[in-house]
Specification:
single chain; alpha+beta; three-stranded antiparallel β-sheet; 10 helices; 11 strands; 43% helix; binds zinc ion
């Protein structure tokens, strides 16, 4: 059975399940609160989803696994907003039976330790109790969020591909992007060009500038504060940090949540400190400054 893209985008979770008389299959949970049983194996279903989005799972594991420090139970990433996190939902009946279901990261509304060991609430009002600890679940979610950030970077590189940025091999088919854009209310690069009220920013730039200000304000070792050195330090630090693009309305403030999110994952202070040391050792400003 082939699920249309529009239906896949409504899925909030799918878990291995056994039904009397029908054998093993999958329970699929949807955003509108409905539940459907599919007579499908978990592995085959995942492969079908990946094919629908032209995602090469082996390639993705190879590229991102070492960065995440994890290859087993890798999140199923169909796109930057379409990550499914593997969480343990049942004890296998037979050896080799699947124990993990897949839960859409963006559809997890709540994770708590009641009922124990861990219960998740999903879009659509689905409430499922897992077979692993809250701590283990949180660790899986952190990994998935890190992968999402990396995919967001790739995604933004696609938006900016006309400017010569890196374009990943696993770019989604245009139709899938259009559907995701529609659902997420995101504009394509063509629409962006037409719509002058929107601007593209690298949030990392803002954060580096803030950190540099803070470090220089406290510094008593005589670091140079001239314009040339400031720009050199900023450029050097930014070259060693991942970029993080956001689209905002012209003049709109940056989201504090976005900035906090970056600070959780990226050590900006150490990148700025290293850049300061390099520039301080070999400043390019002229002698009279
Ligand atoms: Zn200087």
């Amino acid at each position: 059975m082939h699920l249309p893209l529009s239906e896949i985008l409504e899925i909030v979770a799918f878990t291995p399940a056994y039904q009397d008389g029908a054998g093993s299959g999958l329970t699929v949970y949807y955003r509108d609160g409905t539940v459907r049983w599919l007579s499908r194996g978990l592995k085959g279903f995942i492969q079908q989803l990946a094919r629908s989005f032209s995602v090469n799972l082996a390639e993705m594991k190879k590229n991102f696994g070492p960065l995440l420090g994890q290859v087993n139970l890798f999140p199923l990433a169909l796109g930057p907003f379409l990550l499914f996190v593997p969480l343990k939902i049942q004890k296998p009946r037979l050896p080799g039976d699947p124990a993990y279901g897949y839960f859409k990261l963006r559809s997890l509304q709540q994770v708590s330790d009641e009922p124990a060991p861990c219960t998740v609430m999903l879009d659509g009002g689905h409430i499922l109790t897992l077979r692993q600890s809250l701590r283990a679940v949180r660790s899986r979610l952190r990994t998935a969020r890190r992968l999402e950030l990396m995919l967001m970077e790739q995604y933004c590189a696609i938006i900016g591909s006309s400017a010569g940025f890196f374009v990943p091999q696993q770019a989604l088919p245009a139709k899938a992007w259009q559907e995701i854009h529609r659902l997420q209310g995101i504009k394509t690069s063509n629409e962006l060009e037409e719509d002058n009220a929107l601007e593209l920013h690298n949030l990392m730039e803002k954060i580096v500038e803030q950190r540099l200000d803070e470090i220089l304000a406290k510094d008593k070792s005589g670091l140079c504060r001239c314009g040339q050195c400031r720009l050199d330090v900023t450029a050097l630090a930014l070259n060693n940090l991942p970029s993080r693009y956001v689209v905002t309305e012209r003049g709109e403030a940056y989201s504090k949540a976005n900035i906090l999110e970056i600070q959780l994952y990226v050590d900006v202070v150490s990148a700025v400190t290293k850049a300061l040391q390099v520039v301080h050792r070999k400043p390019r400003h002229s002698a009279e400054q």
